[in-house]
Write a structure and sequence with these properties.
Length: 129
Amino acid sequence: MSYESGDFDRVVRFDSRLLGSVDNAPHINTGPTPMGAAGRPQLSLVPDQIDVAPATEDDQWQERALCAQTDPEAFFPEKGGSTREAKRICQGCEVKDACLEYALAHDERFGIWGGLSERERRRLKRGII
């Protein structure tokens, strides 16, 4: 049977019991809703305030990384592309070890991190390097 003809006799009904109850959910008062044209509520897609987690000591190495000051495309080359330039930059970077530790801990699968490619990091994890 094709999609166009449809089999509307076998429609699966949504079971609202799967949603659970909201009767006991706490109400959070967010203040008055600004009114827009024609007396409709004016809703914003952008929050008034964005909560940004403060940088931790673990993340501060990223600010000192040389790659943050260069073209990111060098560190994420196309498949088969050269990694030479990125690795050269990594060799002179003071946070190379922290970068590699981060990549290994977060299972980064793309790009050059700590002077190693994805393949080299996989080998390092397996103990081949």
